[in-house]
Amino acid sequence: MQDKRLHPRVPLSANVTCEVRGGEAITGLSRDISVGGIFIESQAEVTFGTEVTIVLRLPNTKADFRLPGTIRWMKEDGFGVQFGLLGARETHAISELFKS
Q: Which pTM does this prediction carry?
């Protein structure tokens, strides 16, 4: 099976809140992240195509990040979010995770 990801991923275990417009927030734990997206371990039932805002604190940062995204796939233990347009600060913070 060939991995179709465009961006390499790095393991990341961080508490995550997914804010869903017009719905209840979903909490979970990140498993990995890239500049393209994040996988969140959660038992919440989610729907493909739902727009979310991912709220999390990345290592070595002092404030929470708010990352726009769309739910693109689901598994039994969680779901994957494809990020929308990220700013320079967010992209840099995620890229720094690959250096450690």
A: 0.90
